[in-house]
Amino acid sequence: MALHCCNRQLLVLLLLYCVISPLLATATKRVAIFGASGYIGRHVVKQSVLQGYETYAVVRDNTNLDSCSEYFNGANIIKCDVTNEKDVYNAFVVDKPYDAVISCLASRSGVKDDSFLIDYHATSNCVKAAKIFDAKQFILLSAICVRKPLLQFQKAKLLVEKEILESKMSYSIVRPTAFMKSISVQLKLVLQGFPYILFGDGQLCKCNPIAEIDLAKFMLNCINDKSKHNQILEIGGPDVAITKKQQADLIFELLNKKPKFIHIPVGLFDLLINMFEWLGNTFDSKSLLDNAELGRIGKYYATEDMVTTLAQEKYGEVTMRDHYIKAIQNAGGEYDPYSMYLYDFLIDKKKS
Question: Most buried in the list 116, 167, 195, 263, measured by CB within 10 Å?
C-alpha cells in the first residue's frame, strides 16, 4: 500500500516536472529582436513575451509604437539605428549576453540600395555584434525565394546568410514561403469592385503561405528545439500549395460573388522592365533603374512558385481559408508594401 502511494507521488512529481521545466528554461532566457516594429517582428515580440522570454525589442530611432502598442506590452524597448555599427553595439550593452538574437530586418522597397543597406549591411551589423557580445544563437528571418536569386534583395540576403554560416555561432536561418498578407491585396481590390488580376492563365505562382503568428511561433521554437540549430529551415503554412486562380476562386466563394477576372500577359513585365532599364541607363537615372527592379520584383512574385512540400516543412494552424475569412471581416486586412503599390495605383486610377 505504501509502495503504491509512493509510486503515485512520484508520478505526480514527474508530471509536474514535465510541465514546469520548459517554462523555467524559457523564463531564464533573454531574447533581442531586431526589426521589431516590422510586420513580422512585432508578432515575434508579442509571442516572445507570451512565451515568457525576457524580451528586448529593438526598433528604429523614429519609430512611433502608438498604433501597435499591444504587440510590445511586457517588452523592453531599445531604439537603435541598425545601419550604424556603433549604435547596434550599444544595443548589446546589457548586464548579461542575449541567449538568442533574432533579426526580422527587411528592406521596404526591395531596390538595390535599400536592400544592401538593410538586408545586408544592417543585418550584418547585428551578426557581428551578436558574435562579439557572446550571444548564444542567431536566428535570421530570410525568404524561400533566395533559392533562385534574381533580385537585389535576394542577393543581399544570401550575403548575410553566408556571414552567419561563417561566424561559427549557433544559428537558425528561417526561409518562409510567403506571408498570408502578401497574397491578400487582391481581396481588398475585389471588395472595392475590381476584378481579380491574373497573370497569364492564373496557373503560375503556386504558394502555401504561412500566417504571421505561426511564423513567429516557429522562429521562437528555434531557441529550444536543438533539431533546428545550425539549420536552414524552409517553412510554409499547413495548406497544399494553390495557384493564383485557386486563391481567387476561394475569395469569390467566401464573398459569394460571381468570379470576375482580368488576364494580363506576363510579357508586359518584360516590356516595362526593359523600358525602364534602357531609360535608366541612357539618362543615368537611379529612379528609373529602381523602377526596373520593382518590375522584376513584380514579375518574380507573379510567376515563381513559393512552395514547401515535405511534412516537416509545413507548420501552423491558420489556413488560407481562415485568413481570408478574418481579412474579409476586417474589410481587407493588412498588407505588405510591395502589394500595396498595385492597390494604390488601381485605386487612384478608379478615382480619376
Answer: 116
